[in-house]
Amino acid sequence: MTTALPAVAIPGQRLGSIASYVAGPGTHVQNATIYASIAGPVVVGPVQPSSRTKSVLSVSRSIPRNAAPGANAPAKSTSAGKPKLRYNTLPAVDSVVLARVTRVQKRQATVSILVVLDESASSQPLNPSQTASDNDNIEAILSSAANPENHSSSDELRFQALIRKEDVRAVEKDRVVMDEMFRVGDIVRGTVISLGDQSFYYITTARNDLGVVMARSDAGNMMFPVSWKEMRDPVTGVAELRKVARPF
């Protein structure tokens, strides 16, 4: 009797037998049974030529927009040939993330990761009508995160990351002053460069499109970028230094 596959698996959950499937990424085999190794949607891949009749059973880190979990995921779902991802379960190397700065020190800044984006989502305007859940509503997440009243202990439940002084920008690294690059509460777009240790990921803002995307002035007003290193308060007219991401 074949057991129906779950839509989303958690680590250690039983998925199926090796008599019916081949264990793929995100799974492991124990006692002839395939178990999930990570949390994510269950995906049944194409039949392997070596097995002839067995499909690959895997657990993905992300959910394709146009594919249902537990079904065969299309290899291509966009004109560019790259699947559209709704959201990622975990940050991975080269993931584009939006994070809030929680601490700034002389050598590094600590950030709390709010959203993990796919490459296309990070380079296209946000469209709330395309979102499918609260996790996908990036505008709402950022608006809430940028509100100082919402800065609480919830950051402890999010993935933590570090932006080291040498990873802030690509040029003149020795002249970087962290207090002039970021302030607590800033929303930063960055790219994961290392999974780090058990406590912190490492991310970089050393590209023109990476850096601060939302920030409040000392007066508490939302600022707008005026150059790659300055943002301005529209109410007071005062400019403040930041490592500004190129606006799209």
From TrEMBL:
InterPro entries: Csl4, EXOSC1_C, Exosome_cplx_N_dom, NA-bd_OB-fold. Keywords: Cytoplasm, Exosome. GO terms for cellular component: cytoplasm; nuclear exosome (RNase complex); nucleolus. Residues 8-44 form the Exosome complex component N-terminal domain. One of its GO terms (molecular function) is RNA binding. It is found in: Nucleus, Nucleolus. Residues 90-195 form the Exosome complex component CSL4 C-terminal domain. Its main location: nucleus. Residues 57-83 are annotated as: Disordered. It comes from the Eukaryota. Residues 66-75 have a biased composition (Low complexity). GO terms for biological process: RNA processing. This is Exosome complex component CSL4 C-terminal domain-containing protein. It comes from Aspergillus carbonarius (strain ITEM 5010). The lineage of its organism: Eukaryota, Fungi, Dikarya, Ascomycota, Pezizomycotina.
